[in-house]
């Protein structure tokens, strides 16, 4: 972010304008396309970070931070589980699995990876003179940023869980993927994010 800020100031030629402040005609020209692309990239990166903070880490407003309220109603007619504002009918809960702490650390790291400013990073890296083999990093990082915008900030977690099911050793774990795909609405939710 610091490098991108510097590049924005450099695109505005602020440093040259300050050096020639005593001259009547300033030799300042702004690079409008770079500024516009940086502002669009910053919007997408901040949007992804805000979605992660509000939906994953449950920090919508850090100054209004409240404990997450979890309500479970076990009544046979209306059984549900409410987490914050999301309500899950207990009839849709088929089983409960316990995972290791490493699994949750990995999910947290993948969500943090999705929160990195990839769009601004690709623009910043593109402004450097890279070695011949490293030039491919810019379009790759840009493509990952575009995929993050298409599939949502949970892209890396979805990929990890998909590969985990596809490469499962047990037949029961592989069948679980098939059952989840056949559920009503899940393919649309997977694609839409």
Offer a few descriptive terms:
57% helix, 193 residues, mainly alpha, single chain
What's the short version?
The chain is built from nine helices and three strands.
Mean pLDDT: 75
Strand line-up across the major sheet: 1-2-3
Radius of gyration, in angstroms, nearest whole number: 23 Å
Q: Helix-strand pattern, N to C?
A: HHHEEEHHHHHH
Which runs of at least 5 residues are low in confidence (pLDDT < 50)? none
Main sheet characteristics: 3 strands, antiparallel
Distance between the termini: 27 Å
> What characteristic shape results from the CA principal axes?
extended
Q: Tell me the β content.
A: 5-15%
- Say what oligomer this is: single chain
Task: Report the total helices.
Answer: 9
Structural class, by secondary structure, is: mainly alpha
The helical percent reads 55-70%
Number of strands: 3
Describe this structure in words.
This protein has a three-stranded antiparallel beta sheet with strand order 1-2-3, with no helix packed on it. The mean pLDDT is 75. By secondary structure, the chain is mainly alpha-helical. It is extended. Strand 2 (80-83) and strand 3 form a beta hairpin. The protein is built from nine helices and three strands, in the order αααβββαααααα. Helix 3 runs antiparallel to helix 5 and helix 5 (118-126) packs antiparallel against helix 6. The longest helix has 25 residues, at 32-56.
Describe how the helices and strands are arranged.
Layout lengths: L1 H10 L2 H6 L12 H25 L13 E4 L6 E4 L2 E4 L11 H14 L3 H9 L10 H15 L3 H12 L4 H12 L3 H7 L1
Antiparallel strand pairs: 1-2, 2-3
Helix pairs in contact: 3-5, 5-6
